[in-house]
Design goal:
By secondary structure, the protein is α+β, with helices and mostly antiparallel strands. It is 26% helix and 24% strand. The chain has one domain.
Length: 294
Amino acid sequence: MNPRTRVPAAILTGLAVVGLGMAVLFGGGPPPAPPRPRPPAVTLAPELAARYTPANYQAILDQDARIYGLPAISAEALGAPFPYFAEKPKQPRLATGLSTRTNHLQLSLEVTQEMGRLDGQSFRAAHLVLRIQNLTGGYLAYRVETEVGDERHCGGKGELPYNAVVLAPHEAQRRTECLLQSKPQLYLKSIEVMELPALGAMYAARISPAWAFYDARAGAGHVPPRGAPCAPTFDWRQVRDGARQGEIGWRDVIDFYARHNCDEYSFFAGYRFRRPGDPPLPARPPAAPPLPGP
């Protein structure tokens, strides 16, 4: 071969070999894009991570039991599933002077004179009042969702102080439903209850009624039995959106806060009602670093 043509031929041959190799590797298409870099791991600060150790969690339980004057409870016992019930009353539509019951609750509708407030002025008027009584000898978290005939008549109704989240053994609570209407009746839309140990009931009783999915009409009179209300330390919008999609419910939020002091731990959207075999408490959000091995 002529020396002048030998070098270009060798270059062309090399390019052809490289091109053939690329075609074999990538099937004739362009080479794949390099993998995306992984986002940095999100971890809790060391002082926060310490809260999720079993020893610290048990210490919190012991301290809180002493503060509230309640029986001590172990982390293992508090980690057991809580009995939960969605109950239907024997009579879902209540008229004044009548009562109905479920396995856990007795409900009755009364008409009483209570103080209301409208446009800055106080007034005394007849109210529809729902009486809710715990029929059991244990603590209950509860949610009674109701409907009135016409909510436009409920503006300015008075509020009776009551705990919208927890009932003590055999305790009865009263809450205003609306101002008296021409047809004084109430529809019991849904009823949920969860049986709790004493310390779990005290924890749960501190949450906002909005976290228990009550509207302002039913939850405005809520007063915790002891301790300050829980501070809003999590993104409630995620919980609300999850509830709208049917992914998060009342029992998930109650289950978390019946096991965790809200001053130390915050609900997270991935938490669900505990079942047998779930990891030990405290519940760990995704950002919490793993515990050290034995």
